[in-house]
Design a protein that fits this description.
alpha/beta, L-fucose Isomerase, Chain A, domain 3, Rossmann fold
């Protein structure tokens, strides 16, 4: 048994107790089935944790593991997949990935990223998840895996697009937009490719280029340098614009633990700098790496990301001539330079704009979920959260319903605030672009965002990350375990539509555009939103 962790010592130390509890439960379950199990690497008392915390250390660990041994990867935390991907790539024995059903650090997000990375790499594996590792779903799956079987989950919610007859309007819009994209091209601005071990979030150029989209590989050092050229007056102008919109900033005097006014101004500088660089290079969408690189130089990018994704945002002018950049438009931003989300955001923006819908879109972490009664019926309500990129248009009350709170110091030593709020109730389309079998694919589906009582929202914030924006989502026709079994990312892309029929049309047009771009499209769960062919 092995465990991949974070790169940051503070995060690994803070999260280790939860990981140790999960590991002990999994090992007990294996022993109760009559098998022996041992850790493939020790707990380091000097570091105060037992994670594989670098690719270098991961290679050392795998040199000591018999290549044919059954291998269990247990995750109760966010983890960097590249710490262990190399070893799993060449491992000959059966592989099982396991996560605890908890939103705390969170293992579910780490598991989904690892599974998606393994899928992209073509590495066969089985996967399980459990709240306490005593339920029959987990134990039954574990018994089958220990007996030498590959665990097969229910994927009956996944339907190839060819099973449906798309509305004529959707076919026309999607086909036309895809052909326009292929002819006129678009630029995906990537501020330092690769983030937090997310191998699954990198689209190989040879798969991306046939769609008409090309990468502009930018540097976060250039972004930081551009921030230094933004004067105090410009930065304060962004802050004052947000103050007039009644957005709140929960500030304090201690930069080590509080969000300070100077941190907010640096985030405003980043917003301006990102807009100017995007304009210089003609980017249609951009992604900032967020947690790595800049974390030792500047406050977190959350506020800048959320502003970029909103149509209504502080105006930014070009250097020298006063031209307003991307006037009246969002500049779609993909958090953590997740290029799959970037391609999705670009397509979403064009389809929604063509339909006349509000085009704001964001990715979220598939963070956690529990059943909860909605309109008199128990539903499984997902907690979708992402630290950056959520636009104010998605929140109840818009900017007036948003608050910026300091990022946790264990992740962001230099602070910076989020753009926190509660996602408004309504109809959404969700999706995920991913790489599988050397091909670009995409899953699309429908969902409703629901409003829960404030005390329940607060409880869900407390058991996840209370500084981050939250979305309560009920997926159409997709169970908890079906999503976990199929979803090829820790991220899910979401966009609102005016009503249910409008969302169905948007889903169909988006699916048609992706199909014309050459992606393999599957409709997940929401088959009732499209007529059968």
């Amino acid at each position: 048994m092995i465990a991949s962790g974070d790169l940051r010592l503070s995060a690994n130390q803070r999260c280790w107790p939860a990981q140790a509890r999960a590991e002990e439960s999994v090992m007990n379950a294996i022993r109760q089935q009559g098998h022996d199990v041992r850790r493939g690497h020790p707990c380091d008392p000097a570091k105060g944790h037992g994670f594989i915390d670098s690719q270098k250390y991961g290679m050392e660990v795998f040199r000591q593991i018999p290549p044919d041994a059954p291998l269990v990867v247990v995750e109760a935390v966010w983890q960097y997949s590249h710490h262990i991907l190399h070893g799993l790539y060449t491992h000959k024995g059966p592989i099982l990935t396991v996560a605890n059903w908890s939103g705390e650090w969170p293992g579910l997000v780490g598991l989904l990223n690892l599974n998606a990375s393994l899928t992209k790499a073509g590495v066969a594996h089985s996967s399980l998840w459990s709240q306490d590792f005593t339920d029959e779903f987990f134990l039954g799956g574990l018994r089958r895996w220990l007996a030498g079987e590959t665990i097969q989950h229910d994927l009956s919610h996944v339907h190839p697009l060819r099973e449906f007859a798309l509305p004529e309007q959707a076919e026309e819009i999607g086909t036309r937009l895809a052909r326009d994209l292929r002819r006129n091209k678009a630029i995906l601005g990537v501020f330092d490719e690769g983030c937090m071990g997310m191998y699954n979030a990198i689209i190989p150029d040879e798969l991306l280029h046939p769609t008409g989209v090309f990468k502009e590989r930018l540097s976060q050092s250039a972004l930081f340098a551009e921030m230094q050229q933004v004067g105090d007056a410009e930065a304060k102008g962004v802050r004052q614009w947000l103050d007039r919109k009644c957005m709140r900033f929960q500030t304090g005097p201690n930069p080590e633990t509080d969000l300070t006014d100077e941190q907010v101004l640096d985030q405003c500088r980043m917003y301006i700098a990102a807009m100017r660089i995007a304009d210089d290079f003609g980017c249609d969408t951009i992604g900032i790496q967020y947690q790595q690189g800049l974390k030792d130089l500047a406050p977190a990018s959350d506020l800048a990301e959320g502003l970029l994704n909103n149509v209504d945002r502080p105006p930014v002018t070009a250097r020298g001539n006063g031209r307003i950049l991307y006037e009246g438009r969002a500049l779609p931003h993909f958090n953590e330079v997740d290029e799959c989300a970037g391609l999705d955001a670009l397509v979403t923006n064009r389809v929604w704009t063509e339909l006349g819908y509000a085009p704001e879109t964001t990715l979220h972490d598939v963070r956690y979920g529990e059943p909860y009664p909605v309109n008199g019926r128990e539903e499984f309500v997902w907690v979708f959260e992402i630290s950056g990129s959520v636009p104010a248009a998605h929140l109840i009350g818009g900017y007036a319903g948003a608050v910026s709170e300091r990022q946790p110091p264990m992740y962001f030593r230099l602070g910076g605030g989020s753009l926190k709020g509660i996602s408004k109730p309504g109809e959404i389309v969700w999706s995920r672009v991913f790489v599988d079998g050397g091909k670009l694919k995409v899953d699309v589906g429908r969902a409703q965002v629901v409003e829960l009582p404030m005390e329940e929202t607060e409880r869900r914030w407390r058991i996840t990350t209370p500084q981050w924006p939250i979305m309560h989502a009920v997926l159409d026709g997709v169970t908890r375990d079906q999503l976990m079994a199929r979803h090829k990312s820790n991220h899910v892309q979401v966009a609102y539509a005016p009503d249910s029929s409008a969302a169905n049309l948007a889903l169909a047009a988006k699916a048609a555009m992706f199909r014309e771009m050459g992606l393999e499209v599957s409709v997940c769960g929401a088959s009732s939103s499209l007529p059968n062919s």
